[in-house]
Amino acid sequence: MSKQRLGGGWVRALYSVLLSLALPFIYGYLWWHGRKNPRYRQRWSERGAWHKIDPNRKGSLVIHCVSVGELMAARPLLEALLAVYPRLKITITCTTPTGSELIQQLYANKVYHCYLPFDTPLAVRRFLWRLQPKAILILETEVWPNLVAQSAQAGIPVALINARMSERSARGYQKVDLLMRPVWRQLALVATQNESSSERLRALGVSGEALQTTGNLKFDVNVSAELKIQVTEFKSWLRGRQVITVGSTHEGEEAIILQAFSDILKARPDTLLILVPRHRERFNQVAALVKENGLRMVRRSEGLPVTPETQVLLADSMGEMMLWYGVATIATVGGSLIERGGHNPLEPMAFGLPIVSGRHVFNFADVYQQMDARQAVRWVDDKESLHDTWLGLLTESQTAERIGAQAQQLFARHRGATERTVSAVSQLMFASNEAENDKTRG
């Protein structure tokens, strides 16, 4: 044990030195990135934990969501915690301006928000000293060695929530085993999405006592009454048009999608494509690509209505993905047509949509394997097969409904992760003898 601690100590020290030396380049990268998004050049004091923190925020539960995807996954948990512990102080951290914008949009008056500082020893120490959190919850996979180690030294439990570990990610972590194995062992709770993730995390060094398979929080996403009204209103404007929604696309995918859709219009000219790029920095680039393909486009950010002449709605907005899937006839989830590993298919599943996907889904392999077993997904390999599959589902409504129903049944069967996760987190907080004071009495 002592050898392992010694080994982990010097490796973490080396990691800390290298990260500190890299800071000028990291800030340079943020400045360069700020050409397209000026928010990258703002709030740098938070990156080093130099900013002032309201003393009333001390003792809060910190929930770290690296960006938009993790925040959306955390929403069922956040809302459940706020309902069960209405006096609980919550701080939500992230690392991207896009995630920050959405946090402020959704929870402006309910939580405190700041960026998580860079994982240098001094920045982490300042952050923990100023905020003095009762516990830290990290969504999915972003584990920082100094944050975990210094929290453990300060008696602050750190949990990995909704954790997933693909085979590919596990191989990557094995390459830095000397650095990460002591970190995995210091986690007080690791609540995983599935058994395969639990096994891989156990092999990496997470203790069996810390591991719990609680399920995927994203299965507990709710279609709210407000969202249902928005979907109904938007559909009324479309006047029965069939809609293909393609969410979370990356560079290299839009060209394939737009070419396939252009061919769809030859057979079904009334079809509407809703295109949702993954990163807001690419909105203008994708808009230019739509124009290059000769398609009539409306940008959501411009506030103009979708008319019968509109062929593409570029969804260059934040936090509306559920709306775009809600009005869809067919869904395709991006990141799967190129080797990015895919993105969350659960939102279209919640609406019972037939899902058409590329085969590069290793980030969500477990979910897609279950979908494949139930014939709840159609696979495509290129522009031609994408076009043919879309056209077939637009034409054969009964087939589309059957595939969508299978997806929705699978989605319903896996709900309940939020309740299990809240229970695990409550036990973690009770261990510090503080959470009971926040719970509603009576």
UniProtKB/TrEMBL annotation:
Residues crossing the lipid bilayer are 12-32
Pathway linked to the protein: Bacterial outer membrane biogenesis; LPS core biosynthesis
Q: Where is this site: Transition state stabilizer?
A: 140, 218
- Where does the record say this protein resides? Cell inner membrane; Cell membrane
* UniProt GO molecular function: Kdo transferase activity
Name the active site residues: 70 (proton acceptor)
Single biological process term from Gene Ontology: lipopolysaccharide core region biosynthetic process
Q: What is its EC number?
A: 2.4.99.12
Query: What is the enzyme's class at the highest EC level?
Result: transferase
Which residue range or ranges hold the Glycosyl transferase family domain?
Answer: 257-409
The protein's annotated catalytic reaction(s) are: lipid IVA (E. coli) + CMP-3-deoxy-beta-D-manno-octulosonate = alpha-Kdo-(2->6)-lipid IVA (E. coli) + CMP + H(+)
What's the main place this protein lives? membrane
Per UniProt, which keywords does this protein have? Answer: Cell inner membrane, Cell membrane, Lipopolysaccharide biosynthesis, Membrane, Signal-anchor, Transferase, Transmembrane, Transmembrane helix
Q: Which residues form the 3-deoxy-D-manno-octulosonic-acid transferase N-terminal domain?
A: 42-221
This protein's membrane topology, according to the annotation, is: Single-pass membrane protein
- Write out the similarity annotation: Belongs to the glycosyltransferase group 1 family. Glycosyltransferase 30 subfamily.
Q: What does this protein do?
A: Involved in lipopolysaccharide (LPS) biosynthesis. Catalyzes the transfer of 3-deoxy-D-manno-octulosonate (Kdo) residue(s) from CMP-Kdo to lipid IV(A), the tetraacyldisaccharide-1,4'-bisphosphate precursor of lipid A.
Protein name in UniProt: 3-deoxy-D-manno-octulosonic acid transferase
